[in-house]
Design the sequence.
């Protein structure tokens, strides 16, 4: 983005003056208006709030009523006694009532974004690298951006609105763990990693790093 | 599940003065500052005062986290040091989540078994008003204990639809009437907006007294998490790694692997009695508990992590949960007959490790205890230590040792047990009549 700068014009013929060298006026010529400070370029702050690396799961088929929900969509308040939208279970062999699906714990990364400008800012994740002790050991893809709104994550168009922090979440693919383990020389479980993420903010790349995180076993009930 | 970790080695020392506690440390600086308050540390009034520091002072929370980690290099510690209490980044930047929940009752279970959809939970479990006294904190914490989801639990959902399976894995109602709740099982609106079945602290920490009554704080020792999961795979045809299936089958009632590494280190569910008196938390003494913020941070980060690090609980709920856990006590019982011989033996043989008001003394080097090493040296939470087990109602607290590998107190002290389950040999070399006297004393605690 470009700054809008105001040029100062003299009252004496249209010559541009160098503000720093302008002599003190001896005549009654009016003082030029004070030169406004250049407005700081709007900035968009991005940080990684958390990463949980467990599995990559098939995306559920979207429920009809939730397809193409815009970021700001409001959901109807819950009505006591009403039944709820439940998970889209696939047909299985459950003995009673419902059928169930393959258990899976999706890996995700959560971002906090905030812009101090007046206009919405478009963001897009361009690359995600998984690092061990600062060294790249694999690549990861992101998908399904969501935004925190109305006490849950909802589909998001990756636009950061001005005026309030944006809390976002993306699903993560898995790196090629065999290659990661070759690079680190040990099991990927019990090892601490970080993510390095390139994010395009209105076309300009910002790179942010995550807190340390381990690869987690999917089976456990961690307490 | 709850915020503390599960049982610790029952470390009854018969080795006289040989066993030296190894986790001696100076109190954390923040704790020293707290002592300057006008209230006695750990008093009710002090707890009320300290709530404000935990809730409103980010630097205090960070200092308390750092002071509470016994081994800053294990995975549990490193993850928290990297993400907790960092202000505008890390977990502080996650959204706060106050879920809408609905306790599962007999009536709801019957509807689900008849094919109904899950009912819509409403309202949210907290109105945003901060409690102003300890009684209010405990009241809010009770709701968190019973209703704040640890995560969606498809396995529990499956189990509660099958009456035989639910009973077999230890899920069930408090009573038989329609509105009686199933402790630890809720419907809730998850972070993706969908309503699901979830589990809470109460699923492991509301257990049956010997008379069958369900008591908050008592370990649910008939809860068989591994079997519940295996039943799901069996009944639905979902695939499971054979090695994992074998591990889960080996956990049995009251035990599970609760760490996020790939070590096989299941632990037994502990009772939550006298937690306020404990100065180390978890079986491997993972946390130093010199200030209630240590427990509140433990619970805050546990709820955050269990819910896939997508959101964090309001800190008021974490503090409230800590206060509720502190309020838990075993039900009163009739005074037991004095057992002076057994008490003398205990003082001579066990009290060097099992000291203090709960019997949970300073942590002991795991090599000295001699029990299974996996937890103490695990990458997830290892410290090289085991905490002597609290002995409050110890006669009702079996199975014993940190991993629940010894079924009864009698077997724990039986010398033949060592060939089956090595470690914690203390007092097994005593004559039979002395062991009987010691057992009689332990049954009075």
Sequence:
């Amino acid at each position: 983005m470009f700054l809008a700068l105001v040029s100062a014009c003299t009252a004496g013929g249209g010559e541009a003056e160098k503000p720093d060298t302008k002599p003190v006026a001896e005549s009654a010529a009016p003082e030029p208006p004070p030169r406004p400070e250049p407005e700081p370029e709007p900035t968009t702050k991005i940080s990684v709030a958390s990463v949980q690396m467990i599995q990559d799961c098939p995306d559920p088929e979207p429920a009809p009523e939730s397809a193409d929900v815009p970021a700001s969509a409001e959901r109807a308040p819950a009505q006591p006694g009403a039944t709820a939208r439940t998970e889209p279970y696939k047909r299985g062999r459950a003995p009673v009532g419902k059928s169930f699906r393959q258990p899976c714990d999706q890996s995700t990364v959560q971002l906090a974004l905030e812009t101090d400008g007046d206009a919405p800012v478009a963001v897009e994740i361009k690359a995600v690298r998984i690092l061990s002790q600062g060294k790249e050991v694999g690549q990861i893809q992101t998908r399904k951006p969501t935004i925190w709104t109305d006490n849950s994550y909802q589909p998001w168009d990756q636009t950061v609105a001005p005026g309030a922090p944006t809390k976002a979440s993306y699903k993560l693919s898995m790196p090629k763990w065999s290659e990661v383990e070759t690079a680190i020389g040990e099991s990927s479980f019990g090892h601490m990693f970080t993510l390095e993420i390139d994010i395009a903010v209105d076309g300009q790349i910002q790179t942010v790093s995550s807190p340390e995180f381990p690869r987690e076993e999917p089976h456990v009930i961690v307490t | 599940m709850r915020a503390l970790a599960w049982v610790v080695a029952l470390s009854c020392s018969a080795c006289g003065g040989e066993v030296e506690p190894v986790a001696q440390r100076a109190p954390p600086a923040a704790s020293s500052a707290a002592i300057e308050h006008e209230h006695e540390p750990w008093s009710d009034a002090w707890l009320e005062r300290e709530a404000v520091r935990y809730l409103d002072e980010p630097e205090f929370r960070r200092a308390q986290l750092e002071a509470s980690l016994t081994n800053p290099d294990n995975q549990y510690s490193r993850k928290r040091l990297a993400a907790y209490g960092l202000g505008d980044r890390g977990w502080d930047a996650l959204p706060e989540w106050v879920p809408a929940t609905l306790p599962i009752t007999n009536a709801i279970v019957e509807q689900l078994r008849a094919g109904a959809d899950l009912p819509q939970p409403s309202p949210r479990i907290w109105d945003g008003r901060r409690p102003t006294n300890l009684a209010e904190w405990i009241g809010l914490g009770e709701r968190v204990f019973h209703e704040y989801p640890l995560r969606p639990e498809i396995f529990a959902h499956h189990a509660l639809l099958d009456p035989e399976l639910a009973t077999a894995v230890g899920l069930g109602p408090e009573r038989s009437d329609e509105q009686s709740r199933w402790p630890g099982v809720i419907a809730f609106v998850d972070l993706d907006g969908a309503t699901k079945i979830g589990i809470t602290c109460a699923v492991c920490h509301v257990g049956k007294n010997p008379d069958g009554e369900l008591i908050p704080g008592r370990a649910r020792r008939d809860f068989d998490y591994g079997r519940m999961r295996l039943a799901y795979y069996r009944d639905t045809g979902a695939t499971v790694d054979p090695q994992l299936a074998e591990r889960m089958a080996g956990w049995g009632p009251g035990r599970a692997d609760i760490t996020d590494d790939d070590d096989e280190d299941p632990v037994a569910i502990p009772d939550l009695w006298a937690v306020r008196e404990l100065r180390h938390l978890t079986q491997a003494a993972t946390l130093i508990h010199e200030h209630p913020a240590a427990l509140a941070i433990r619970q805050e980060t546990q709820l955050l992590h269990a819910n896939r690090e997508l959101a964090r609980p309001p800190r008021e709920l974490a503090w409230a949960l800590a206060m509720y856990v502190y309020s838990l006590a075993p039900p009163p019982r009739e005074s037991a007959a004095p057992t002076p011989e057994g008490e003398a033996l205990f003082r001579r043989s066990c009290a060097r490790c099992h000291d203090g008001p709960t019997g949970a003394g300073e942590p002991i080097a795991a090599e000295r205890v001699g029990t299974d090493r996996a937890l103490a040296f695990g990458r997830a939470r290892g410290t090289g230590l085991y905490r002597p087990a609290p002995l409050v109602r110890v006669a009702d607290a079996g199975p014993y040792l940190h991993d629940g590998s010894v079924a009864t107190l009698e077997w724990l002290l039986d010398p033949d047990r060592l060939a089956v389950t090595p470690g914690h040999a203390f007092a097994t070399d005593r004559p039979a009549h002395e062991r009987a006297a010691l057992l009689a004393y332990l049954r009075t605690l």
In short: Residues 20 and 140 of chain A are 52 Å apart (CA to CA). Chain A touches chain B through 60 residues (CB under 8 Å).
